[in-house]
Amino acid sequence: MPFSSKVFRNLKDSIVGVKEQDEDPLKATRLAVDAYSKDAKALCQTLQAFAKANDELDGVRGDVVKTAKAFLLPMDQQGGLQVASDPELTKVGNLFSSEVDSISHSKKDTRQLLDDAVSEASAMQRRLDDLTTAFNERDKAAELMSHYKIKMQALSEEHISKPKKDMDDRIKRNLVKQQNAVEAYKRVDTEVRTEANQVLENRQTDFANILQKMCTYIAKNSKSQATAIPAFEEQIPAMIQESKANLQKTRAAREEAAKAAEKSEKAPTTPASAKESSAVATPTASSAEGDHEPDKEPSTAETKDTTKPDPSPAASADQTDKQ
């Protein structure tokens, strides 16, 4: 099959690819487009990974809230046993969940900005891929133009050396094909030049538009997270410290009560029978007064008798002398 066959050329191009022009005037432009295409592909992959990471973070954030509620909400609210719980820590769980939910809502509300940034980056990459394809089509047109140029030279040399009756018709047919190839190359070359210039000129602007959406997305979510800072940095730690202090007080009071109960158990006790016998044997003040009359004071006569002096021995001796 001759090289001039269109089928063979297409088969060769599909297998080994299209050869770039040896002396391409757009070589520097093409290198710039290739470098830009690599950057755009990396940007698109980065934004897609960023969006995926945010989705995964939202899922993890939800798991964190569920875990916090499982630990800090009273067990009776979770279908468990009736056990003592700290209301202060229950408030901590509710506050933490509320703040995290607020951050998650902000992520959902601003997700369109992130999706738009990813979409624009993908569009940029597609445009560069299309431009790369256009460069390849330009190479094909240049190759076809070169093919008919070489063929026309060969036909002209053959016509001069060995004139034939049908040579003029062959030259005319291939001359038309050569002109068509030249026109096709000029057309695709103009399109590629125009598109390449626009793409390279808009390189910074297109990326700036994507960056603007990313900045807005990050800023809005940062504000949402900033509103949670007082709760995370001050309120929740203070509530936890207060709960710890209350727990220490409760434990100390419990220990004191246990010690007091232990002392009362160790103190000696009087048997009930001993208490009853003691009560019978020892009259009370009221019973003594009821059973016995009060002592009577001595009468006047008795007082007088008791006040008379007894006769002394001297008086007895006088009386004996008188007798």
Automatic annotation (TrEMBL):
Domain of life: Eukaryota
Compositionally skewed regions (Low complexity) per UniProt: 277-288
Ranges annotated as biased composition (Basic and acidic residues): 252-266, 289-308
Signal peptide range in chain numbering: none
Region described as Disordered: spans on this chain: 245-323
Annotated transmembrane regions: none
UniProt cross-references to InterPro entries, sorted A to Z: AH/BAR_dom_sf
Protein name: BAR domain-containing protein
Organism encoding this protein: Perkinsus olseni
